[in-house]
Write a structure and sequence with these properties.
The protein has one domain (3-399): Sodium/glucose cotransporter (Up-down Bundle). The chain is 75% helix and 0% strand. It has helices at 3-22, 29-34, 41-52, 55-68, 74-98, 103-111, 113-145, 152-200, 204-214, 227-241, 248-255, 260-277, 279-291, 293-300, 309-317, 320-354, 363-387, 392-399, 401-406, 408-416, 422-441, 451-468, 479-485. It is globular and about 65 Å long. 55% of the residues are buried.
């Protein structure tokens, strides 16, 4: 094992120690779940950006771009960045004023216990794919930097267990503080590597872009102007744009902000940064076609691994300093994303599934339960990643289909449509899931409508029909107004008074 490995290990240890130090700020569930609502604007931006700039941004998206062109990455970064921007502009404000601990609390207070349980389970399950992608990437990185001495299998376990350590103790405080450090490393590292590559690639940045243009990589963004093409484009865009909105990690960052304006504009700025910076790894990976076309050909051939193009290109054609910077940035991206996506489903499951089963549970015991659930979820998602044969990009993209078809419509209609009822929400969840699963089980149904698009339409239909028809499910018509005014805000024990919404 060479110098690169030991530099990576040193950085890894330092970041874990910082995360453990952040644990000193955790005194109750509010601190663990949403950092006590004390994050300043720059930390909100950092945690939004760093959480989303994960393994798929550095490894998955570039590989997909080389193989399929810009038409293959509609979901991410286009749909993903639009999700954060639209969430900040339209949803962050109303949700922040409700002063809730989890996104599941919104469904509970707006639609009742049944909708809370159904959406919470869907949200938790959706995280398997996203966290699994980060664990897979960690195994890949440890295998590469150790020169093969650490297998990808053991790399996954080492990575997931060390991230678990500081997430277990520090919660959202640990995630936010380490995200700030990791955002700085990501930004500076990617800019530095980009400058190094520009000096050795024929024609510099312009040469790489022109080569991609000549190869037709930017010519397939818009779909063919027929029904199937347009629907396919819309489905790819909406999967992450809408499917990511009813997620605890997005909600958590807005709720952790010290002020309402921080919640809104932190998400908008973080999403905008994410969009622009994802093009740097694409540029770096595509430059390998000009520097080492044989390596790219080998990795893209059957039996190769397209996700290895960028790491291999850095190892073969960059000096040690550039290698350290690149893999430091890569690890930062993966760790920030993995820690956040381990915390989010664990907090949601504990608050919205376990807590109602233990009425009167103390805040101390609830915090202990959140930590134990974090351990269990980490073990489950690591096993899932080890046994999955999907690519990093596929795992991330597929993760959001379940929340798109089950939780998105009830969230948006619950905030903006006074007539949305408990019955409509349950119908939306059930119809969306039923149609989506039906399309997956019977693939012939995909010929016109992709499964997630069909599921979204079914969810919309269920909400409209279920809310407008005679009500057979108990519904309180005053909930909408009370929730919007903050009269139903969650009261959570805390050592400090929460910051008021502006």
């Amino acid at each position: 094992m060479g110098m690169l490995f030991w530099f990576v290990i040193a950085y890894w240890v330092v970041s874990v120690l910082i995360g453990l130090w952040a644990g000193s700020k955790v005194h109750n569930t509010r601190d663990f779940a949403i950092a006590g609502r004390h994050l300043p604007f720059y930390m909100v931006v950092a945690t939004v950006f760093a959480t989303w700039f994960g393994s798929e941004s550095v490894l998955g998206i570039p590989a997909t771009f080389i193989n399929e062109g810009i038409g293959g990455i509609i979901a991410d970064p286009f749909g993903a960045s639009l999700c954060l921007i639209l969430f900040g502009l339209f949803l962050a404000g109303p949700l922040y004023k409700m002063n809730l601990l989890t996104i599941g609390d919104f469904y509970k207070k707006r639609y009742g216990r049944t909708a809370e349980v159904m959406t919470t389970i869907a949200i938790v399950v959706s995280y398997l794919g996203w966290v699994g992608a980060q664990i897979t990437a960690l195994g890949l990185v440890f295998n590469i930097v150790s020169g093969g001495e650490i297998s990808q299998f053991w790399g996954m376990w080492i990575g997931s267990m060390t991230i678990l350590i500081y997430t277990f103790f520090g919660g959202m405080w640990a995630v936010a503080i380490t995200d700030l450090l990791q955002m700085v490393i990501i930004v500076l590292g990617m800019v530095y590597i980009g400058g190094e590559v520009a000096e050795i690639v024929p024609g510099g940045i312009g040469g790489v872009v022109q080569h991609a243009v000549d190869a037709g990589k930017f010519s397939n963004f818009w779909p063919s102007m027929d029904l199937v093409g347009i629907i396919g484009f819309a489905a790819a865009l909406m999967t992450m744009m809408f499917g990511s909105m009813p997620q605890q990690d997005v909600f958590q960052r807005a709720q952790s902000a010290k002020k309402l304006q921080y919640a809104k504009w932190g998400s908008v700025l973080g999403g905008s940064m994410y969009f622009f910076f994802t093009f740097i790894p694409m540029y770096l990976a595509y430059s390998a076609l000009l520097i080492d076309p044989e390596m790219v050909k080998t990795q893209m051939a059957e039996g190769g691994d397209q996700q290895m193009i960028l790491p291999t290109r850095i190892l073969n054609h960059a000096p040690l300093v550039a290698q350290i910077v690149f893999f430091g940035a890569l690890l930062s991206a993966i760790k920030s994303c993995a820690s956040a996506t381990l915390l989010a489903p664990s907090v949601t499951f504990t608050e919205n599934i376990l807590r109602p089963l233990r009425p009167g549970i103390s805040d101390r015991n609830l915090l202990r339960a959140m930590r134990w659930v974090t351990i269990i979820f980490t073990l489950l998602v690591t096993l899932y990643a080890i046994n999955s044969d999907s690519s990093i990009f596929e795992m991330v993209e597929n993760a959001y289909q379940i929340t798109l078809v089950s939780a998105f419509i009830p969230l948006v209609f619950g905030i903006f449509w006074r007539k949305a009822t408990n019955q409509g929400a349950i119908a939306a969840i059930f119809c969306g899931l039923f149609v989506w699963l039906g399309c997956l089980i019977f693939p012939a149904a995909e010929t016109v409508l992709p499964p997630q698009f069909a599921g979204l339409l079914a969810s919309l239909t269920g909400m409209l029909v279920g809310s407008l028809m005679p009500q057979f499910v108990k519904n309180d018509p005053t909930v909408f107004d009370r929730l919007k005014s903050g009269q139903m805000a969650e009261i959570i024990p805390t050592t400090e008074q929460p910051q008021p919404a502006e």
